[in-house]
Amino acid sequence: LVGGGVRDLLLGYHPKDFDVATNAKPEEVKRIFRSARIIGRRFQIVHVRIGREIIEVTTFRGHHDDLAKTNSKTDEGMLLRDNVYGTIDTDAVRRDFTVNALYYTLKDFSVHDYCGGLEDIKNRVLRMIGDPATRYKEDPVRMLRAIRFAAKLGFTIEPKSAKPITELSGLLANVSEARLFEEVLKLFLSGSATATFHLLREYDVLKQLFPGADAAIKAGDTLGVALIEQSMISTDKRIRGEKTVTPAFIYAALLWPALQREQQRLAAEMPPQAAYLQAAQNVVSQQLSRTSIPKRFLIPMREIWDLQYRLPSRQGMRALRLLDHARFRAAYDFLLMREDAGENLEGLGSWWTRFQVATDEDREQMVKDLGKQNTGSKPRRRRGPRKPKTDGAPSAE
Question: Does 17 participate in catalysis according to the annotation?
Fold first, then answer.
């Protein structure tokens, strides 16, 4: 056993999965296990299915000195292929962090530490193996992994490992949108979303993943920051309670500050509804240039947004129709988060809270009361019919 599973066991956590490292090459592993499947191009690994579980099996990787001969890099130093095989000793120094380079072997039932990982676990330090800048250039996603592990484990990123992150974060632009989407899910759906958000801002990496949100926050959008933090707190709480969390909700919150800012910019040029629709299109388009958003999450995200503009309209049968909307619950939760973040919605969240549990008779009265509130100001005096002209009136001719 190798990697995060060993690390988590030493920390007293229950590992989500276990990885295996071996001197057998992928083709050899596949011949042994009929359920095995080789995946990956940059570095091949084998997924071995045992019942419902998938065990990830990797072949020991070779030393850095062999890379120039065998592997392919971009001009920025990013590895395109990394299929150099070696021994357990060389494999250890090829791993990203010392705390992930721990091997538990059945030969003597002991943990083998080749890079000082046990000491770093004791000191709760996250340390990159090798030269951090070089390792980040090889795979920029390692910067996101550093932030994710630091947030998840409550570790401090060792200064030499932390220093290049802000400077090199722009290299994330070379990573595919699909891979970055998967990394975003790992960042925010691992039970430490709040700490992750703070670290992304601390190391100025948020702009590489969510440029619109980063721009709005840096422009002084305190409500936007509060909303995102509320969503992260809620996400962490749901994960601790083993409840489901949809990426649509996370993305709706992370992109909301950008949506609000863009809508305000367009409001001077077009009607409110048109400004919202155009703003949503612009924000989504910008985000898709950084991370992909599969349609199964993009459509619900847009529906959560749409309902924020429909929930205030409750007259007639609208309230009941909104209550039956498939995305009502998520939109309602989002509405409450906006209020918790400090946005003044004039009691809208409270109204919907009461409406959901009210009887049919009470619901009808609540809607009628809205009409009374809307007519609370002095009504405009309707203009009566014109008086007929008198004989002394000037002629129209």
Answer: yes
CA dist., res. 210 & res. 283, Å (int)? 10
Which residue's entry shows tokens 């925010």?
Answer: 188
Residue 92 lies inside a defined structural domain of this protein: yes
Residue 391: inside a domain, yes or no? no
Non-local (6+) Cβ contacts of 49 within 8 A are: 35, 36, 37, 55
- Domain final residue pick, 123, 148, 167: 123
What is the model's pTM? 0.85
133 domain residue, yes or no: no
- Residues β-bridged to residue 111: 104
Query: Measured between alpha carbons, how far is 193 from 155 in angstroms, rounded to an integer?
Result: 15
Residue 188 domain-assigned (yes or no): no
Domain limits at 348? 300-372
Give yes or no: 8 in active site. Answer: no
Give pLDDT, residue 189.
96
Say whether 96 is catalytic. yes
Of the residues 82, 100, 123, the one at which a domain ends:
123
Which CATH number do you get for residue 61?
A: 3.30.460.10
Catalytic one of 8, 82, 91, 96: 96
Question: Mean pLDDT over residues 251-268, rounded?
Answer: 97
pLDDT at 263 over 90: yes
Q: Count structural domains, the chain.
A: 2
